[in-house]
């Protein structure tokens, strides 16, 4: 039986994980779980630890592991620490990627992060009925700006997985690109996660806030973001979206403050890089014009 | 069309019922039977109240008097009898008919009875036969009074229906007000008899159309219509005017003789019954069959309608049935402070509990289902502001309808989604469940009405209800099942029979399951909390915020606490359907679907609730503030095991004593015992006090009871030697030797004992005692006194004498540790010693295990507090947590055909010709190109912030898969657009906010903060350069804002430069002449830019004053005149007038300045000099500021972005 199915014992921890409620995942009492679920549980917990910024602990604790799942997690941790693990990942995927779901998923993540989208999709396509993999594929398609492929993927999953959380999430991600009524549907899904105790996290609250922002409901988005900040004021995504919100609200000073904060939290956040890049682009473009300020003598 | 489910309310079994009458007020019907009996039934309770048996043979006619406790009957014994149902006797009998009496009716106001008989006559009676109407030439089967006019209609087997005018009879019998000659003449003239000598009643119309005998005829309650039923199996409708009457139409359908018919009292319907065993309902306007109901074996003979409420009764071969045509329960739903309901006109309305107002109709559901069937249920979705309505028509249909934003009248809904189903409820904001009884299936549907999931409910399911978070409650005839939609499984099941309605508490923790006679309260997990039984039908229920269930029966509002305690809150005159309770107000819908507010007194149940929750403060408050006394509450408290609380209510000493004993409150008991001073009470008190270990009270009671032995023993055991001695003394005084001996024994007082034995001549014992204690001398003297010697006495050796042990601790000085009394907390609360509210009791006080609710109370209280603020969002949780099983035939993901696509940002640039959209798209280069082309922008540095802002505002970061970077999404201003060719980005700082900024700039000017003002206006210009507006109207507003900002900037810049020149001085006489000239010119130029309204007077007044001070009187005069023209400010006018007066005396300037107030010119924004017409000039393509020709090609000083005089196509802000 699929341990992630509603009847399975992993359902709750899995939900919390995908809602980004990492601390809840770590605090989860898994002692009663059956032995077969021990490894998946461990993987979820380790990934949560990485997401919480404890990658170095994870990396060192797994240094000697040879179980392919855990090797994959170690690579993920090392990647988070800034190491180049691409070669190792490729090797691992080649060896274990046929069967091992964890390897597929983490391999997919790392390959995609390294820009090897094609190989990421290739390894992920080997999954057998894993919604995690489906969700990741959807996300990769969205990163490719292929909302059409993403929608197709989600639709296919909807047929066999019905109303599962991940299907709803994946659809919502796609919906955030499609817009219109889909914004509202996405909002429902995100809000549901964000307002349920087990799955409330800055992750889920930010998702809710983003959907509200797209719906043009700025005060609501602000409330959700503040809730997220109250939970964790050091989350880069929270800050990045707060910057967007405050910009829309016209609060310039707040934006400057948040930018400084974001730099403190995650110097390499792509937003900062992106903005820096744009700044340079602006200067380059502006230089093409030669304004004359005074009348020539 | 047939409906197999007739809403039968009551059925009786008897012989053939020939006549029926409803009581106008009470739930009673009279049934006259073929067997000669008349029955009086309470159809609500289903009980036979009385039987009247004086007729001989069948009784066919029966009627209640409208106001008096009377009824009339007519039978085959030719007799009409008038009865009192109070005295249960026949009052009198009217004889006169010569054959069977068919019908009898009271007049609606006159003391008249109308009868029809097989003797072919119709008669009117008071205590005697007033009038006999002849004309029918066969049996008259039925005759009825018109409800208002002086008319009678009759039906006969002669195939005719006749309408009679009886106004003559009324005139004759109404008391004459005057007896003038004319009156008498008029009457005698009128009294000219017809050919039968009969003038009081004349035939007005004869209606012919039936081909057989006519069995029944009836008037319409308000319209000039008549309906008749005959043996030709037809029901005919007739209309009459003042002068004629004619047949309108025929209702065909009965396939046997039609026995009786009538008009529906309120609706446009006709009801008829026949010997074909059917009841048929017809549409009055279309004469088509609406409904029909068939009985297996019984022919119908008669039908009657209740005059006010929606009830009918039909008599058949084996009794009577009382039924409704439609359900009266109005479909409704409550959300927070609003009630949504469907009125009798099938309009959707809402009602605000806080404001107590009903909205106008929002929607008309006329077209939903069948015209005659009201919708059954309504489910409301607050998120989507839509409703789900179930109509029983066509085997059950549901419709999903969006409510309009504001109630603007009964509009037909647009964009509805429908399908078939018997129940439909929202289970999440974007999901609803539809249950279809016929194929036993539940579909979960999304808002587009597409099925997302299908559930097979348990066998025999009859209904579904919302089941809390992601769940459904499935109702079967014998149980309720809580079903998890997500997991597709039963969570729990509760065996309850025949549940009809489900009511959730506002905190969603409890649910009340209502069946016909039972209320079952269960937790949200369907664990039964309590259940109660009512003998009368239960109609509805609602929860108090504190967790008390209020429910309505046919005639009461009652309450039930969680523990099943229940009681009556108030009585009801009419059935109502509760929807909400708030404080002392109960909100409900009546049978006409009108919202009503009923007042209740919640004290009793609040008190009981506080008791259960041990909320002592609340109880205290209730005790102090309300008059909650009475035996019922005391016995309730006592029964429930709270004697100590009951104690607070009681004055009567006897009861107080009993209660005090029961709760162990000895102080009160002692006090009461002292008051009453009865041995029995002291007795009880002593044993109770002993049980407590309170020996002081015990001592007192023994004293009171003069129980010396016990007292002595008590002193012994407490070690109270002093008192023991006193007891010994007392015993001595009383001469009670045994007691004296005992006390001496307790005291170890040997001497006393010996003396005592001697006193009562028990020398042997005295001797033995003395001897045993080694008192040889005394023993010897005793011996001597009694004349014995030592040899004669043989004493068994008994070892050493025992002395009573000495007490170690003087326990008599204080009480022993006593048993704790159970009242402590409450009493302390009463005394104001305890501050907190619900304090957990220490375990010792006796009632910790007795109520199950103990655990729930705090939770309930807590949620009660949070109550209304938090809306029901939690309840909407769909619980999408989980993944379904992977199916085997899983489709392999195809490899994608192509690589990356283009991002939404690229689309924006493609979709829009506006610079702002290109900036948002991140395509800065093209944005700059656009700006350059449109407005000749070349200096972009001041716009960097704006570029950044727009770019930043349009990208959000959605965290998706863990360990992956967030997904970038693109914020749109076209929120509802999905066509990729039309989507456009959001641009921060819309026109509205910019106009607000503009306003702050103006006020800076008024406040003389010119530099701030310049900065603000420049900011406005920079915001508007890259922006979008929605319409042409907004565009012209934006353009106006640009010009305004530019002109203000120019004006303030000129003034700033003047101030810089003179360094703030007002008197410039000390400065060089050319500086003075320039200052005066600048002051004058300040007045040139176009400022708005009153702002124009600021530069004018400044220039006027400045010129006046510097003796430029001509200039000052000009400005003064201009100012007088423009300003409305009294103070300025005053100054202007003064200056004008002064200046007019000598209108001359000291210094000639370059300012011609009569010429039309503009000021160059670079040099601040006039540009007269005809001289070369250039303008800024963006803000329109003018410059001398030589500045062409440089950057505009005002906007700082555009090149003066550059070729430009004009700014675009609208796509």
TrEMBL record, chain A:
Q: A GO molecular function for this record?
A: structural molecule activity
PANTHER family in the record, alphabetically?
A: COATOMER SUBUNIT EPSILON (PTHR10805:SF0)
Give the InterPro entries listed for this entry.
Coatomer_esu (IPR006822), TPR-like_helical_dom_sf (IPR011990)
- The question of whether Disulfide bond is a record keyword is answered with no
Name of the protein in its database record: Coatomer subunit epsilon
Q: Name one GO biological process term.
A: endoplasmic reticulum to Golgi vesicle-mediated transport
What is this entry's stated membrane topology?
Peripheral membrane protein
Cite the entry's keywords alphabetically. Answer: Cytoplasm, Cytoplasmic vesicle, ER-Golgi transport, Golgi apparatus, Membrane, Protein transport, Transport
Major subcellular site: membrane
Cellular compartments annotated: Cytoplasmic vesicle, COPI-coated vesicle membrane; Golgi apparatus membrane
Task: Quote the cellular component terms of the Gene Ontology held in the record.
Answer: COPI vesicle coat; Golgi membrane
Q: What does this protein do?
A: The coatomer is a cytosolic protein complex that binds to dilysine motifs and reversibly associates with Golgi non-clathrin-coated vesicles, which further mediate biosynthetic protein transport from the ER, via the Golgi up to the trans Golgi network. The coatomer complex is required for budding from Golgi membranes, and is essential for the retrograde Golgi-to-ER transport of dilysine-tagged proteins.
TrEMBL record, chain B:
Q: Which UniProt keywords apply?
A: Cytoplasm, ER-Golgi transport, Golgi apparatus, Membrane, Protein transport, Repeat, Transport, WD repeat
UniProt xrefs under SMART domains: WD40 (SM00320)
Q: Which Pfam families match?
A: B-prop_COPA_B_2nd, COPI_C, TPR_COPA_B, WD40
Signal peptide, first to last residue: none
Question: One GO molecular-function annotation for this sequence?
Answer: structural molecule activity
User: GO terms for biological process?
Assistant: endoplasmic reticulum to Golgi vesicle-mediated transport; intra-Golgi vesicle-mediated transport; intracellular protein transport; retrograde vesicle-mediated transport, Golgi to endoplasmic reticulum
Q: Where are the WD repeats?
A: 52-93, 94-126, 133-174, 207-248, 251-292
- Protein name per its UniProtKB record: Coatomer subunit alpha
């Amino acid at each position: 039986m699929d341990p992630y199915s509603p009847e399975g014992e992993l359902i709750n921890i899995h939900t919390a994980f995908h809602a980004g409620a990492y601390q809840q995942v770590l605090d989860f009492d898994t002692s009663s779980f059956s032995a077969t679920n021990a490894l998946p549980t461990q993987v979820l917990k380790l990934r949560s630890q990485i997401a919480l910024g404890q990658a170095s602990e994870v990396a060192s604790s797994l240094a000697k592991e040879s179980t392919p799942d855990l090797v994959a997690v170690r690579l993920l941790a090392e990647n988070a620490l800034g190491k180049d693990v691409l070669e190792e990942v490729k090797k691992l995927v080649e060896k274990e990627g046929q069967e091992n779901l964890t390897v597929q998923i983490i391999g997919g993540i790392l390959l995609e992060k390294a820009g090897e989208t094609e190989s990421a999709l290739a390894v992920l396509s080997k999954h057998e009925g894993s919604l995690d993999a489906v969700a990741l594929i959807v996300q990769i398609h969205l990163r490719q700006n292929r909302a059409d492929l993403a929608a197709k993927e989600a639709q296919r999953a909807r047929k066999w997985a019905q109303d599962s959380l991940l299907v709803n999430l994946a659809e919502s991600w796609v919906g955030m690109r499609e817009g219109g009524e889909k914004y509202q549907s996405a909002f429902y899904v995100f809000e549901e996660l964000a307002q349920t105790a087990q799955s409330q996290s800055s992750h889920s609250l930010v998702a809710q806030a983003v959907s509200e922002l797209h719906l043009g409901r700025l005060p609501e988005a602000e409330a959700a973001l503040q809730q997220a900040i109250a939970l964790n004021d050091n989350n880069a995504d929270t800050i990045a979206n707060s910057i967007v919100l405050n910009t829309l609200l016209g609060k310039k000073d707040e934006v400057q403050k948040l930018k400084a904060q974001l730099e403190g939290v995650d110097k390499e956040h792509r937003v900062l890089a992106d903005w820096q890049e744009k700044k340079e682009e602006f200067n380059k473009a502006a230089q093409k014009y030669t304004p004359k300020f005074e009348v020539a003598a | 069309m047939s409906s197999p489910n007739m809403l039968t309310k009551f059925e009786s079994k008897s012989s053939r019922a020939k006549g029926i009458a409803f009581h106008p007020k009470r739930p009673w019907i009279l049934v006259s039977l073929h067997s000669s009996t008349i029955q009086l039934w309470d159809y609500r309770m289903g009980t036979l109240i009385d039987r009247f048996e004086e007729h001989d043979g069948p009784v066919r006619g029966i009627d209640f008097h409208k106001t008096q406790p009377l009824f009339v009957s007519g039978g085959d014994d030719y007799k009409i009898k008038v009865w009192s149902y109070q005295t249960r006797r026949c009052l009198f009998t009217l004889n006169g008919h010569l054959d069977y009496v068919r019908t009898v009716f009271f007049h609606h106001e006159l003391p008249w009875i109308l009868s029809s008989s097989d003797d072919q006559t119709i008669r009117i009676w008071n205590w005697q036969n007033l009038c006999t109407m002849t004309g029918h030439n066969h049996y008259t089967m039925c005759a009825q009074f018109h409800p208002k006019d002086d008319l009678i209609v009759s039906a006969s087997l002669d195939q005719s229906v006749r309408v009679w005018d009886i106004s003559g009879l009324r005139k004759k019998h109404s008391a004459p007000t005057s007896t003038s000659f004319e009156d008498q003449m008029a009457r005698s003239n009128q009294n000219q008899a017809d050919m039968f000598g009969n003038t009081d009643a004349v035939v007005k119309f004869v209606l012919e159309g039936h081909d057989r005998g006519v069995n029944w005829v009836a008037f319409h309650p308000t319209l000039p219509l008549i309906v008749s039923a005959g043996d030709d199996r037809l029901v005919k409708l007739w209309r009459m005017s003042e002068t004629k009457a004619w047949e309108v139409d025929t209702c065909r359908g009965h396939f046997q003789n039609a026995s009786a018919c009538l008009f529906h009292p309120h609706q446009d319907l006709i009801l008829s019954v026949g010997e074909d065993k059917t009841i048929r309902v017809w549409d009055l306007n279309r004469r088509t069959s609406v409904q029909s109901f068939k009985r297996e074996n019984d022919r119908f003979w008669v039908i009657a309608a209740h005059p006010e409420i929606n009830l009918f009764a039909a008599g058949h071969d084996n009794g009577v049935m009382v039924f409704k045509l439609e359900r009266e329960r109005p479909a409704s739903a409550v959300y927070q402070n609003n009630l949504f309901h469907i009125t009798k006109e099938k309009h959707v309305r809402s009602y605000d509990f806080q404001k107590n107002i009903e909205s106008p109709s929002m929607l008309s559901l006329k077209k939903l289902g069948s015209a005659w069937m009201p919708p059954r249920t309504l489910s409301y979705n607050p998120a989507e502001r839509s409703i789900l309505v179930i109509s029983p028509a066509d085997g059950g249909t549901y419709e999903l309808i969006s409510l309009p934003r504001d109630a603007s009248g009964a509009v037909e809904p647009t964009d509805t989604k429908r399908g078939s189903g018997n129940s439909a409820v929202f289970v999440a904001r974007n999901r609803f469940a539809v249950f279809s009884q016929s194929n036993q299936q539940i579909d979960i549907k999304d808002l587009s009405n597409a099925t997302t999931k299908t559930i097979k409910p348990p066998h025999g399911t009859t209904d579904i209800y919302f089941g809390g978070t992601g769940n459904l409650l499935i109702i079967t005839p014998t149980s309720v099942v809580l079903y998890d939609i997500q997991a597709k499984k039963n969570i729990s099941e509760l065996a309850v029979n025949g549940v009809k309605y489900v009511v959730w508490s506002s905190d969603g923790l409890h649910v009340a399951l209502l069946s016909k006679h039972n209320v079952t309260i269960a937790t949200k997990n369907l664990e039964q909390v309590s259940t109660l039984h009512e003998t009368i039908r239960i109609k509805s229920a609602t929860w108090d915020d504190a967790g008390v269930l209020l429910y309505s029966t046919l005639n009461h509002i009652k309450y039930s606490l969680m523990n099943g305690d229940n009681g009556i809150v108030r009585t009801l005159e009419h059935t109502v359907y509760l929807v909400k309770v708030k404080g002392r107000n109960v909100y409900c819908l009546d049978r006409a679907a009108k919202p009503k507010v009923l007042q209740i007194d919640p004290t009793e149940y609040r008190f009981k609730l506080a008791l259960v929750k041990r909320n002592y403060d609340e109880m205290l408050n209730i005790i102090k503030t309300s008059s909650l006394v009475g035996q019922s509450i005391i016995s309730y408290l006592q029964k429930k095991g709270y004697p100590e609380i009951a104690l607070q209510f009681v004055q009567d000493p006897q009861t107080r004593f009993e209660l005090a004993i029961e709760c162990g409150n000895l102080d009160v008991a002692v006090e009461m015992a002292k008051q009453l001073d009865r041995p029995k009470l002291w007795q009880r008190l002593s044993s109770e006090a002993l049980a407590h270990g309170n020996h002081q009270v015990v001592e007192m009671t023994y004293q009171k009871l003069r129980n010396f032995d016990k007292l002595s023993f008590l002193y012994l055991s407490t070690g109270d030697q002093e008192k023991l001695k006193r007891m010994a003394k007392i015993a001595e005084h009383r001469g009670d030797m045994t007691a004296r001996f005992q006390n001496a024994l307790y005291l170890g007082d040997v001497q006393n004992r010996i003396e005592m034995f001697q006193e009562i001549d028990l020398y042997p014992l005295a001797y033995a005692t003395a001897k045993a204690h080694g008192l040889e001398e005394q023993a010897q003297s005793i011996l001597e006194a009694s004349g014995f010697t030592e040899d004669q006495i043989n004493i068994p050796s008994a070892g050493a004498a025992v002395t009573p042990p000495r007490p170690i601790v003087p326990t008599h000085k204080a009480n022993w540790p006593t048993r704790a009394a159970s009242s402590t907390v409450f009493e302390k609360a009463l005394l104001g010693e305890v501050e907190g509210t619900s304090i957990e009791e220490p375990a010792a006080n006796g009632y910790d295990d007795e109520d199950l609710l103990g655990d729930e109370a705090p939770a309930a209280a807590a949620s009660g507090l949070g109550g209304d603020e938090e809306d029901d969002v939690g309840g909407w949780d769909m619980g999408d947590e989980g993944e379904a099983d992977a199916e085997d035939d899983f489709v392999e993901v195809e490899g994608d055909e192509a690589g990356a696509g283009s991002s939404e940002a690229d689309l924006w640039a493609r979709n829009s010709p506006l610079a702002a959209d290109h900036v948002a798209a991140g395509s800065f280069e093209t944005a700059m190109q656009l700006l350059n082309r449109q407005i000749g922008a070349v200096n972009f540095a001041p716009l960097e912030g704006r570029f950044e802002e727009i770019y930043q505002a349009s990208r959000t970061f959605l965290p998706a898969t863990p360990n992956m970077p967030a997904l970038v999404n693109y914020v749109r201003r076209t929120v509802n657009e999905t066509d990729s060719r039309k989507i456009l980005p959001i641009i921060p700082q819309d026109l509205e906010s910019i106009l607000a900024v503009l306003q702050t700039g103006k006020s800076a000017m008024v406040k003389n903060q010119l530099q701030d003002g310049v900065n603000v206006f420049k900011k406005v210009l920079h915001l508007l350069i890259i922006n979008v507006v929605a319409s042409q109207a907004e565009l012209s507003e934006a353009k106006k804002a640009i010009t305004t900002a530019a002109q203000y900037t120019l004006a303030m810049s000129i003034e700033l430069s003047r101030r810089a020149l003179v360094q703030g001085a007002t008197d410039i006489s000390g400065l060089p002449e050319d500086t003075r000239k320039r200052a005066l010119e600048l002051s004058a130029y300040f007045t040139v830019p176009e400022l708005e309204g009153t702002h124009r007077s600021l530069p004018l007044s400044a220039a006027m004053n400045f010129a006046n001070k510097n003796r430029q009187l001509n200039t000052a005069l000009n400005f003064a005149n201009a100012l007088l023209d423009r300003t409305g400010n009294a103070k300025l006018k005053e100054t202007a007038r003064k200056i004008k007066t002064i200046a007019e005396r000598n209108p001359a300037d000291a210094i000639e300045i370059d300012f011609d107030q009569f010429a039309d010119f503009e000021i160059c924004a670079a040099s601040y000099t006039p540009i007269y017409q005809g001289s070369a000039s250039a303008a800024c393509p963006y803000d329109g500021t003018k410059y001398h020709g030589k500045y062409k090609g440089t950057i505009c000083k005002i906007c700082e972005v555009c090149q003066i005089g550059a070729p430009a196509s004009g700014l675009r802000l609208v796509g």
